[in-house]
Amino acid sequence: MVLDNVPAQIPQNSRVQQSGLPPHDISAEEAVIAALLLDNDAYARVAPIIQPNDFFREHNGWIYEVCLQLADRNETITVPTVAHELLRLDRLESVGGEAYLQEIAGKYFTAIGVESHARIIARDALYRRLMQTAGQIAQLANAGGADVSHVIRESESLLLNLRSAEASGDFRRLRELLDDFLEIPSEEEVDTVVRSGFMDMDELLGGFKRGDLLVLAARTGVGKTSLMLNFARNAAVGSQGTVAIFSLEMNGEQLAMRMLSAESGVKMSRLRLGRHGEEEESRVMNAHGQLSSAPIFIDDSAMLSVSEIRAKCRRLQAEFGLDLVIVDYLQLLQSSGRADTRANEISHISRSLKELARELNVPVIAAAQLSRAVESRQPHIPMLSDLRESGAIEQDADIVMFIYREDVYLQAEQWQDKNPTSPGSQHPTGLAQVIIAKHRNGPTGTVTIRFVPETASFQDLLLRSDTSHLEADSLGPTN
User: pLDDT tens for residues 444-454?
Assistant: First the structure.
């Protein structure tokens, strides 16, 4: 029974300050155990906050662990039941016998403030882990080696793992969530989504929402990389967002050339060989200035794991902010753990990418390859079952998008043969369908956009003339 009017018997400055010992508070540990022995409701209040290994004094951790075991079995936590369980585990004498349990139950005779005492234990445990992590980082630095970046990545990973372990959620009343939703946002909070830059797509999806994992899948050569570069350009140039691109297949110079070609409207072949005239040169220079000021950061490391991406994104977020992460492509990522099958490895990667999106509070767009099954049926329209190597990709993703271009599969003559009864209809040259096959929080559907093969870029259908890059400078050719 909680005694509402009895003050907690914990000295305000109860932390034990002894030279050479890490942060801890024995009084808080004993007070939590006493609360568990005195009040059956205390278990539910402290269990979400602390674990047995959070206790500094080992035998206090043993007692707490026994209390949790008894509660899990729906048995009452009392001095005799805890003593019996400790005796069964051959630990009763080590903790000081039943007399020790009686002593702390009498010393702290109330459960008031048990959550505060538990948080003291959790906080000190975090400080001790931080000190341990600092020691590990010091060992990494002391070992040195030629690869400084590896040491930095490992150090960042240790700190991020510590941060992830420290962060924990708890119940929130529905009323609070509804109040947050109805509250008028400040100017800084208005833009909570990242726009794709394609009008119909943004209308269907409502933009790319922070914390979402989006998968963009297609067969090779259909335009996954090109469309994701459009997303990056539109987020950075159109919305002044910071974008991180991880390209495991294509080097940074190739990506930069593609983006410059798309922005200027100059064919990549002419751009690469320097065979462009004065008017094109002017467009290239304007595009160069536009893209150079855009906060787009490209990492073209050929081998990356999600933990390395997390560490790099954390550093970028701290220095410049972060609004969008693009990974090209998912199946090339390395798994940080060992998996018995390739499907399980991909499952771990897709789940880790979803965790990354939520942890960084940014949309993460990952390209994915489709299986060859799409090639063997008519028409060649992708479906969710075509996602290669793992159904977990579909489960973890908030949005799954496919790119389908009929002109990739059918030449004009073949298309006409298949559509002899459609007078006046034309071969769908340069038309691409983005199929929203899964949308966890909204409708699915299909958006038609235009593909420009000369610059390997996509455009809204409204920008259809050859001079659209001149007529819509404020949007650019990739809008």
Answer: 899 988 888 88
